[in-house]
Amino acid sequence: MLGRTGSIGRRFLLLTVAGYVVAVLASVLALRIASEGTLQSMQDAAIRDHAAANAQSVQNALEDTALQLGYITRDADIVNLAIGDTTDDAAARDALAALDVAQGVVSLALFDFLGDVVLEDLREEGANSFDAAEKAALAQGLVSADGASPRYRFRPGHTRSMGRFLVGLPLVRNGIVDGALIVEMAIDLSLVFPDRTSIGAAQLMTPFQMSMADAWGLGDGDFITVPVGETGIDMILIPDRASVALIGRELVARVTLAVGLVLLLPFGLMCAAGYRAIIGPHEALAVSREALRQRSRQLRELADISERLNDVIVATDLDGRLTWANHALTEKTGYRLDEVMGRSPGSFLQGPDTDPEVRAEIGRALAMRQPIRREVLNYTKSGTPYWNLLSISPQVDGRGRPYRFVAIATDITLAKRAQEEILRAKSEIEHQAMHDPLTGLPNRRALDDALASIASPSGGDRVLIRIDLDHFKNVNDTLGHAAGDFVLDEVARILLHAIGEGDMAARVGGDEFVILLAEGRTRADGEELSKRLLSEIQKDMEFEDRYCRIGASFGIAAAADGLVGNEDLLSGADAALYTAKTQGRNAVITYSDALHDGVVEARVLASELQRGLLRGEFEPFFQPQFDAATGAFTGLEALVRWRHPTRGVLTPDVFLTVAEQLSVVEDIDEQVSRLGLAAVSRLNASGMFVPKVSFNVVARRLQDPDLPQRICADRPEGTRISFEVLESVLVEEQSTEFQFQIDRLKDLGFGVEVDDFGSGHASIIGLMQLGPDAMKIDHRLIVPLTTSDVAMRMVQAILEIGKALGIRVTAEGVETAEHARILADMGCDTLQGFYFARPMPCDELGAFLRRYRPAPRVLTAAEQGRTARQ
Amino acid sequence: MMARTGVAAGMRGLWRCVERLPARARVAMCRDLAFCAARCVFWCVAGFAAVSLMATQGARASDAPPPLRIYVDADFTLTPAPADAITLGLRVAFAKSGNMAAGQVLEVVEADHRGSPKRSHRSMQSVLRDPNALVVIGGMHSPPYLTYGDFINAQGIPLVLPWSAAGPITRLADGPQNHIFRLSVDDTKAGPFLVRSALGGECRRIAVLLADTGWGRANRATIVSAMVQAGVEPSSVLVVPNGVGEATGRQLVRQLNASRPDCLLAALTSPTHGPVLKALVDIAPDIMVFSHWGIMGQRLREPAMQDILARLDIRVLQTCELQMEAQGKPRISAALSEARDLGADASSLSDIPAVAGFVHAYDIGRILIAAVEQAAATPAWQDGSAARRTALRDALENLGAPVEGMLATYAPPFSPVGPETPDGHEALGLEQLCLARFDEGRLVAAPQAPLQGG
Predict the structure, then answer these.
(1) By CA distance, what is A88's nearest residue in B?
(2) Between helices A736-747 and A707-714, what is the axis angle to 10°?
(3) pLDDT at site B358
(4) Engineered SS bond to A329: which of A109, A220, A325, A646, CB 3.0-4.6 Å?
(5) Rounded to a whole number, what is the distance in Å from the CA of B100 to chain A's nearest CA?
(6) Cβ B394 vs Cβ B176: under 8 Å
(7) Whole-prediction pTM value?
(8) 3-state secondary structure of B7
(9) pLDDT at A206
């Protein structure tokens, strides 16, 4: 069809072009017939113009030559010679010889006012030259006329293109013609005539030639004559009629072009209008039919595709009544089309659990003729629910007005189920991530989130309670982990039962719990709750017919105490808990300003401690030990001292707690032992042999497999090295690995001593298993020795145990001679205390040992020590 | 008969008309008719007398000797003032003798050579062809006679120069071959005179300015030679080219002024002096100028030139007629009276442009008359024109009686020229040279500086 349309357009265009060509040709033909006479006139005018132009060129050339020669006629030497001021022509001849302005000068002749030659300069011999008489005649004419205008004569040259000219210039002096300069020139006329061939041949004529032109039949009588200005020379032009005819043809060509251009506009307009009125609508109709055909094909394809689709496609009128549906509707819902045709799809597809809000949204969209896309629960004919992703779009006609709705329903039931499963799993994971699996309480992460969610610049009314179960380890150790888990679960139950609405109880560690009170609760509420919880927790718990009892320590911190940040709040509660622990457990401690100061001091101390560790400010002080019976120096205990840059020498009670919190005790021990060994080596080297030196170590350090290697590197020759461990290890460290490490140390020649025996559990079993070299009686049992029989008996008992187990006993805290005497009498092996010597740095120790002289009796030895100090 | 009848009828008709007029009108008409008749009679008598007189004169002319034609070969076109002054001087001198000499009418013929030697030469050829031509009086230009002096001597044309000053002209030939005489300034004396005048005016540094012509170059030799003889070196010697304009004039004067002269000796010609004098006024007005009389010409009468001359301290070489007029010489006043009779507006010599030409021509005229009278008494006078001209030449060289002129009494004016007498054809000497100055465009006698040396 389009091809036909194009053909019509081409035919229309061809017809228009043909009409245009015919119109142009007819116009030109008419013009040619009508302008025959005018054309002839124009050709004649062209010939005349050409002749006049040639004549003008010759005139210009001659006048230019005259102008160039004119100045020589005013030369003083020329004039003087001409008028007779001088008869010597040398200067004038030089002036003429210097004349080089006019090309083609053949000769120059200077005439006086009588017409006599006074000077002649013949430059070039040649045929057809003017003779002297002709020159003289011209000069005579000039001087007799007494005028200032130049005169000219012409003669044909030896070739057709050359012309000979006489140019006569008057010598005018003060307005009087006193002579004449006659210049003969040979000029190539082919260079002068602008064009010799286009119109016709121009040539200059002598008067004789002019008179004979007719007789000679010049140009068959077809020529025109033009005077060359005022020169008196005539020029004829014999026209080239063939070339002149070209003028006519050129005119016709120009007219044709002009007519063609003029007719182009109306024909162009006609062509444009024809296209617009005839071809345009025709082409538009063809395009419309083609579009309709393609649309129809697309619709068939779409209908075919829609029948094959699994998605349900329905069409309704604007009232929502079903007008068309694909086969998938029957397959998906079980309804036959004839059953539901004319009904609203919502009326038979939606059921009781269909979201009313979604139904309302769909209704509003249909009423507003707007598209909508929603997930909707539908029902089959048998009542089986399934999920559809329903997309409804209004269809508009050619004028943009909606005339029906088309809905596409995609079954997303499986996707929906999968989505619900994912959500459920995700919820479970999130719950597990945020809760303690044992107790079901929120874990530390949940607590952090809760704290972060309520964090505010002002801090709010937040109250935090930290709970740490006392002796929970014992439950695990004694009753097993199941019992421990039971206890933890029971504590969680107690917490959940006790806390109020909005409070949050979380398990943040093995036996650590935190309660975050709801907003609005106060510190007093926290204290009341803590006490109530302590009471409940301290009650007996029955597990598998056995009862266990635990305690708990409570640390309470409130944002109202200036603990702005959550970290501060947690730290405050931690500090309070720690205080509770240190105050004997089973206590409720509330964070206070004093506690705050302690915390601040502890922080400062912690900072300084770390810096001191780096600077090596921890050093050993040595307290000597003596044989109780002989008074002999038996060894040293290396005690750590911190040589603080501003606070002086600090004892461990000041910084040990902080060091433990910072977990740097081992580092301090390491530093002290290294320095101590070096000091002992120096003492040995200086002749003051140290039989033994003992270092206090924590149990963890003893388990360090590299400890022996490091100690051995600095080990003093001949001095036995012992490690003092706290009595608590006898109870707390009963693992096989620990025991293996102790045995290994013993095998390597290191001694092991139990420090502060009697201050803790005093496990005899543990003592037996450990098998130490010595055990040191805590000074709190030694000091009251002189006043308390109980103390004396306890010391006696310990000494007996030592004897029974074969363990040497060292008494610490021997402050008086009485202490020394009693202990010696009781059979104590070794004495150590202020009575003998305070802990001292290495250099003082050296002096002390140099002065010390062992004595048989301890008293004497003590006295010697005092004397030495004095 | 018929005519008489017609006249009678007319008279009767006229009388009838008169009769009808009033009485007073008839009286007036009669009076007018009487006057008319008297006029007719007067004119008839006068006409008759004139015809009778002419017839008488014609009869005399045919009997009288032919006139003696004195040609004035001068430039009457471009510089007419000297030519006219010369012609006037001749006519006054001739008029004093009734325009007659030796019984022959003296006829002055003006031959205009327009400043061209060739035209002068043609005039000489015309003189040769004229059987009545006796002598030629030159104009102010020297070149025609420098160029064709030999021709003139060869052809035996007596030539007397009242103005041309070029020294060689009168010395082209010796003895009887020399036909050229001068009653004017001789440049061989003008140069020394100007030098002496300048030195007498207490000039210390003297510059020389000369026209670029043969005349100018000739003056250079005499002036510089005179200065050398006086022991003075010119501060600068410059040549003014022909056709000089104001720009070139200023450049020349600047160049001249660079030598810091206090005096200037100038030998300029009339066409070239204007731009130079104007530049002198603008650039060096304090320089004292001693000028040859070449600057004299009609342009001096133009207002612009008069203004320039008034602002310059300039003295011009002249002969001493102005001084003599000032001394009240009666022959000068008599000559002026004759000039006035001939229509010249000249109450004093200063009223005559180019007064030197007038005075010199007058004296030449007087000498010519004396020479003609003397020559006419010789037999050769009757032997044709050539012999007559030779006789005149000889008479000029050998005048027997003193001739009284305005400038001097010449006793005699000329003598033969020979190697020992180069000034034989010079009528004037240094004693006739004076200086003049300009006063409102008129030449007046200038104070005469004492001449130093010879």
Answers:
(1) B147
(2) 20
(3) 94
(4) A325
(5) 35
(6) yes
(7) 0.49
(8) helix
(9) 78
Q: Which of B78, B118, B213 sits opposite A84 (nearest CB)?
A: B118
The phi, psi pair for A590, rounded to 5°, reads -105, 135
- Model pLDDT, residue B85: 93
Rounded distance, CA A842 to CA A617, Å? 15
Question: ipTM value of the model?
Answer: 0.73
E-strand ranges in A580-664 read: 588-590, 618-627, 633-644, 648-650
Which distant-in-sequence residues (6+ apart) come within 8 Å of A346 by Cβ? A320, A359, A362
If one compares B326 and B170, the residue with the highest pLDDT of the two is: B170
Residue B317 has pLDDT above 80, yes or no: yes
CB B137 within 8 A of CB B361: yes
Phi, psi (5° rounding) for residue A589? Answer: -120, 130
Angle at A517 between CA A514 and CA A523, to 5 degrees: 100
Angle at A87 between CA A81 and CA A89, to 5 degrees: 65
Structure tokens at B94: 């001739």
Determine contact, residues B151/B176, Cβ cutoff 8 Å.
Answer: no
Name chain B contacts of A178, Cβ cutoff 8 Å: 114, 116, 118
**According to the model, what pLDDT value does residue B40 have?**
45
**Residue A618: burial class (beta carbons within 10 Å; 0-12, 13-18, 19+):** buried
For an interface test with A, the pick among B116, B151, B212, B272 (most A C-beta atoms closer than 10 Å) comes out as: B116
The residue among B112, B118, B212, B239 with the most chain A CBs within 10 A of its CB, best to mutate, is B118
Check pLDDT > 50 for residue B48. no
* Mean pLDDT score across all residues of chain A: 84
Least confidently predicted of A319-333, B33-47, B376-390? B33-47
Measured between CA atoms, how close is B248 to chain A, in angstroms? 17
Q: How far is it, in rounded angstroms, from Cα B345 to Cα B337?
A: 10
CA pair distance B231, B251, nearest whole angstrom = 29
- Which residue in A696, A745, A751 sits closest to A724, CA to CA? A696
Side chain identity, residue A139? A
The residue type at A821: R
- Across the interface, whether the CB atoms of B214 and A86 are under 8 A apart is answered yes
**pLDDT confidence of residue A223:** 81
The pair of three-digit structure tokens given for residue A639, joined into one six-digit string: 């005690």
C-alpha–C-alpha distance, residues B323 and B397, integer Å: 28
CA distance A492 to B164: 160
CA distance, residue A103 to nearest chain B CA (Å): 29
Residues B197-230 pLDDT 10s: 998 877 889 999 998 877 888 889 899 999 999 8
What residue ranges of chain A have pLDDT lower than 70? 1-6, 100-103, 125-127, 146-147, 194-198, 219, 247, 455-460, 564, 599, 730-734, 760-762, 855-870
pLDDT digits (tens, 9 = 90+) for A684-723: 888 888 999 999 888 777 778 888 887 877 788 889 999 9
Chain B residue numbers with beta carbons less than 8 Å from the beta carbon of A83 are: 115-119
Residues A163, A189 contacting (CB under 8 angstroms): yes
Partner B contacted by A76 (CB < 8 A): yes
> Which residue in B77, B116, B214 is closest to A83 by CB distance?
B116
Please give, rounded to a whole number of angstroms, the shortest distance from the CA of A168 to a CA of chain B: 20
Chain B residues with a Cβ under 8 Å from any Cβ in chain A: 77-78, 114-122, 143-144, 147-148, 213-214, 242-243
- Say yes or no for a CB contact (<8 Å) between B116 and A76: no
Predicted confidence at residue A860, as pLDDT, reads: 46
* Count of alpha carbons within 13 angstroms of residue A491, beta-carbon side: 30
In this structure, which amino acid lies at residue A745?
L
Residues B143, A87: C-beta atoms closer than 8 Å: no
The angle, 0 to 180 degrees and rounded to 10, between the axes of the packed helices A36-70 and A2-34 is 70
